[in-house]
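ARCHIVE CARD
CATEGORY: sequence design from structure
SOURCE FIELD: tokenized fold
FIELD CONTENT:
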């Protein structure tokens, strides 16, 4: 369905609800580069590469990515070195090398190992000690964690260069890792510095103060943009807090679940002409002029959305003059919302309609390139014609994902998973406990009676 709240051709889906269908333009996914726990290396300077050739049936691309990361890290100025994980030498019951729980795990499973990739981590075959699962105890202020700023900067440089090398590979995988690595290093010659202004600002927001001024600034702009676009001000997203906590909370309309308003009522998804929670048939979307797709992301998500728009939009200014030299970027107009950017002249709309002026972080840049997508297991679908926070198992779900449980690494690596034995052990334990308790009561009663008889009590 065309979204009534959009002036362009952006579309959404009513059931299963998708507020944005732009992801359908991605085309064929060739591989994935995932990152996990690179801020704490346990006192070392070792990074590890998981996955690689074993994830895509030795087709070549995932193995190429693994080789590129190792190749690029050899020239790291800070001494941080990436090496192949020892876990790749192990196999689970299915004969597959286990992957740490990351989005790559889902990609490999859903594609039946037709598409693979790599995971860059700060751990080898077990998680770093005191990894506290996205709570506030993972922050820089916690006594349990030592955050390595240089490790983060090194990983960021490595991932950026690897992405360039990945794009440099041809369709037949004929470019070797050394050639691609050299090309990426030439294109990005300067590494990320942990003392740079941008790094320092983001570090403070992500590890020290989740309510920082930078996040609030970007969040305020995105809140205003959404209110003007939809006609509904949903307020600021849930903040990370101080110190920051990355616990995701309950997935509902207050925590990032997309929903829609149709004929004055709110739904997690919509199936027309079927009964709603009040037993009345649901009206078609679009009958009311106020019908709209809505989403209230967290403050972190709103800020990342704005940051991506800001930095990617600034990249649109790089143009070459007639002599081949790059022209200086124009002075950016200031703004409080996208409405303030309608008169800017430095965005070339003739080259691409995607360069429409957009307000991001208080500056008018060219193009809104960020998109929100649901952080939801592929087996789950928002229940139709009811409110948010309620979900159903998809009828076509094949049981590939872990669904209700946290994804795990392997039965033999990092954590051990035990099968549910059912109710029987509990029943036996409860029965034995009850018998033992009765026996104790009987013994005490008998013992007291004997003591009274012998006149010692």
């Amino acid at each position: 369905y065309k979204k009534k709240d959009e002036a362009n051709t952006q579309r959404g889906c009513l059931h299963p609800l998708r507020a944005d269908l732009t992801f359908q333009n991605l085309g064929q996914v060739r591989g994935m580069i995932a990152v996990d726990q690179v801020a704490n290396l346990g006192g070392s300077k070792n990074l590890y590469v998981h996955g690689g050739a074993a994830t895509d049936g030795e087709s070549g691309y995932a193995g190429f990515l693994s080789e590129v990361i190792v190749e690029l890290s050899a020239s790291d100025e800070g001494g941080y070195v990436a090496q192949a994980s020892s876990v790749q030498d192990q196999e689970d019951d299915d004969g597959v090398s286990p992957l740490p729980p990351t989005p790559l795990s889902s990609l490999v499973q859903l594609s039946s190992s037709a598409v693979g990739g790599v995971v860059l981590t700060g751990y080898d075959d077990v998680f770093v000690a005191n990894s506290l699962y996205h709570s506030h105890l993972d922050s820089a202020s916690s006594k349990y964690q030592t955050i390595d700023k240089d490790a983060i900067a090194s990983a960021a440089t490595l991932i950026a260069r690897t992405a360039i090398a990945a794009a440099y590979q041809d369709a037949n995988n004929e470019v070797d890792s050394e050639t691609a690595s050299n090309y990426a290093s030439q294109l990005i010659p300067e590494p990320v510095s942990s003392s740079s202004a941008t790094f320092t600002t983001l570090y403070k927001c992500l590890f020290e103060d989740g309510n920082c001024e930078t996040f609030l600034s970007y969040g305020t702009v995105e809140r205003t943009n959404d209110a003007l676009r939809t006609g509904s001000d949903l307020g600021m997203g849930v903040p990370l807090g101080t110190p920051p906590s990355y616990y995701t909370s309950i997935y509902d309309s207050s925590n990032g679940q997309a929903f829609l308003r149709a004929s004055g009522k709110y739904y997690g998804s919509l199936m027309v002409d079927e009964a709603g929670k009040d037993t009345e048939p649901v009206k078609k979307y679009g009958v009311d002029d106020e019908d709209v797709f809505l989403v209230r992301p967290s403050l972190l998500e709103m800020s990342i959305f704005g940051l991506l728009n800001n930095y990617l939009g600034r990249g649109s200014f790089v143009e070459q003059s007639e002599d081949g030299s790059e022209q200086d970027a124009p002075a950016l107009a200031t703004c409080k919302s996208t409405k303030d950017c309608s008169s800017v002249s430095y965005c070339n709309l003739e080259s691409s309609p995607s360069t429409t002026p957009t307000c991001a972080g208080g500056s008018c840049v060219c193009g809104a390139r960020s998109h929100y997508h649901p952080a939801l297991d592929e087996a789950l679908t928002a229940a139709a014609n009811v409110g948010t926070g309620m979900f159903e198992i998809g009828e076509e779900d094949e049981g590939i994902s872990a669904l209700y449980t946290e994804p795990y690494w392997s039965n033999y690596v990092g954590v051990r998973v035990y099968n549910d034995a059912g109710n029987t052990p509990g029943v036996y334990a409860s029965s034995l406990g009850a018998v033992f308790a009765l026996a104790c009561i009987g013994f005490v009663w008998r013992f007291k009676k004997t003591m009274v008889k012998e006149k010692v009590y």
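CARD ANNOTATION: The radius of gyration is 28 Å. The longest strand covers residues 31-36.
SHELF: design records, drawer C
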